[in-house]
Amino acid sequence: MTRGERLGPYETLDAIGAGGMGEVWKARDTRLDRIVAIKTSKEQFSERFEREARAVAALNHPNICQLYDVGPNYLVMEFIEGAPLKGPLAIEKAVEYAGQILEALDAAHRKGITHRDLKPANILVTKQGIKLLDFGLAKQSGPLPGAGDDTLTQGLTQRGEIVGTLQYMSPEQLQGKETDARSDLFAFGCVLYEMLTGKGAFEGESAASVIAAILERQPAPLTAAPPLERVVRRALAKDPDQRFQCARDLKAALTWAMEQPPPSTAVKAVRRWQWIAAAALAVGALGEWSVSHFRQPLADDRVFRL
To answer: Of 35, 36, 30, 72, whose CA–CA distance to 53 is shortest?
Structure first.
């Protein structure tokens, strides 16, 4: 494509990005005089494009990029001015963004949609907050309990298929096993770890070493964010049954962890109460000694008078 080219009512303005699957352009909707983003495909409405169109069309959430239109080999989407998520961030800001990401994931999961490619490059930070992008690898399957009747139930991938970005893939993804919402929560754990430390949770010099780290090892402790250590560890559990089972539970755990006093404060509080208790005991003992001390001469006087 070139600048000024027309796709139906859309006029291309500037190239945003390109990859093996196609290109992304900033464009103008000539009917509504609105700036949009157009994602083109090298194939005539490929399965991946169909998957993304179905997934995004089913979602309506402020933290998910909105789909406007579909063409024979392109998707017209909300144009977002922002930058990809990047760490390290202050713990409060990281938790704020984490909450918005989890709300977006919860909206998708309740529609039976697993993203399967959650990573910082697919999360834009805007002035208004977080936007989750690129549902091109999304898996549409059965709904979560309590989801609405309009849940999509078409599965577009097969068991044994390995898709995603290596550093953020769950153990079950790497092994070609069935994936579900908990696989996204593992990827989220990787993203949160990176937000807090500026480093990947599982790093290596080769693809094989990264895979080994994901399958066998634990990431380095979160020394910069001790309150969140247990939450991140559980999100990154190798066994899906040991992870948080839904995004809402993970968000609640983050909120709870942030509300707890720092360990040093808790220790100081315990010590302060220990000193208060000790002082109270000392005062009580002194009182008993004083009473007995002042009573004793009276007894002696009585004996003396006798």
So the answer is: 72
pTM of the predicted model, to two decimals? 0.78
The model's pLDDT over 98-149, given as tens digits with 9 standing for 90+, comes to 999 999 999 999 999 999 999 999 999 999 999 999 888 888 775 444 444 3
Question: How far is it, in rounded angstroms, from Cα 83 to Cα 85?
Answer: 6
Selected catalytic residue, list 106, 117, 134, 180 = 117
Distance separating alpha carbons of residues 123 and 172, to the nearest angstrom: 23
Query: Would you tell me how many other CB atoms lie within 10 Å of the CB of residue 119?
Result: 21
How far apart (Å, rounded) are the C-alpha atoms in residues 280 and 287? 10
Beta bridge partners of 201: none
Give me the architecture of the 83-259 domain, per CATH: Orthogonal Bundle (1.10)
pLDDT in tens, 135-156: 888 887 754 444 443 433 344 4
Q: Does domain 6-78 have CATH number 3.30.200.20?
A: yes
Name the token pair of 107. Answer: 């909206």
For residues 184 and 167, what is the distance between their CA atoms, to the nearest angstrom? Answer: 13
Q: Exposed, middle or buried, 105 (CB in 10 Å: 0-12/13-18/19+)?
A: buried
Sheet holding 83-84, edge to edge: 83-84, 123-125, 130-132
* Extended beta strands in the chain, E state: 6-7, 10-18, 23-29, 34-40, 67-70, 74-78, 83-84, 113-114, 123-125, 130-132, 139-140
Helices 91-109 and 181-197: crossing angle in degrees, nearest 10, is 170
Q: Which residues contact 284 (CB under 8 A, 6 or more apart)?
A: none
Token readout for 96 is 């704020």
Give one word for 59, left, alpha or beta, with left for phi > 0 and alpha for psi -120 to 50.
Answer: beta
Per the annotation, the verdict on 117 as an active-site residue is yes
Distance between CA atoms of 201 and 210, rounded to whole angstroms? 10
End-to-end CA distance of the chain: 121
